[in-house]
Design goal:
155 residues, mainly alpha, 5 helices, membrane, transmembrane, transmembrane helix
Length: 155
């Protein structure tokens, strides 16, 4: 191993392990719960609209944070390899089916089931929630690791 002089962490790229940090899953779930409660407190939103908004806002945030933004906020000695990868691709050094990857794959599915149930499978809500779910599940497929469809997000 190589000693990293002048950095406060021992990881070459802290993005690879941040989702395994102590309490991150609980913080993530509490954040989604707080988002839902804030949306519920808006008086003119019905319960089905709040569930759909919670699902869509969560998935939009997850898509941007995990699948659109590339690089790392840390200085890494990896010769710029991390700047070409999304956070999802950096997670656990790209190893598939780790516990953190499973958690962040299953959590939008659970939220989708809750949103579908509380919207009583209304067609409009169902289509919106399904499209939102697919927008975060498809980029997580192992077959799409490092793939840039139509050159989108290539650089």
């Amino acid at each position: 191993t190589r000693m990293n002089v002048g950095v406060a962490h021992s990881e070459v790229n802290p993005n690879t392990r941040v989702m395994n940090s102590r309490g991150i899953w609980l913080t993530y779930a509490l954040g989604v719960g707080v988002l839902h409660i804030v949306l519920l407190s808006i008086p003119f939103f019905s319960v089905p609209v709040v569930w759909t908004l919670t699902n869509v806002i969560h998935n939009l945030g997850m898509y941007v944070f995990m699948h659109a933004v590339k690089g790392t906020p840390f200085e890494t000695p990896d010769q710029g390899k991390a700047r070409l990868l999304t956070h999802w691709e950096q997670l656990d050094y790209g190893v598939q089916f780790t516990s953190s990857r499973k958690f962040f794959t299953i959590s939008p599915i659970i939220l989708y089931f809750l949103a579908s149930f509380y919207t009583k499978y209304d067609t409009t809500h169902f289509v919106i929630n399904t499209a939102s779910l697919l927008s975060v599940l498809i980029p997580k497929l192992p077959q799409l690791h490092g793939v840039r469809i139509l050159g989108i997000n290539k650089y």
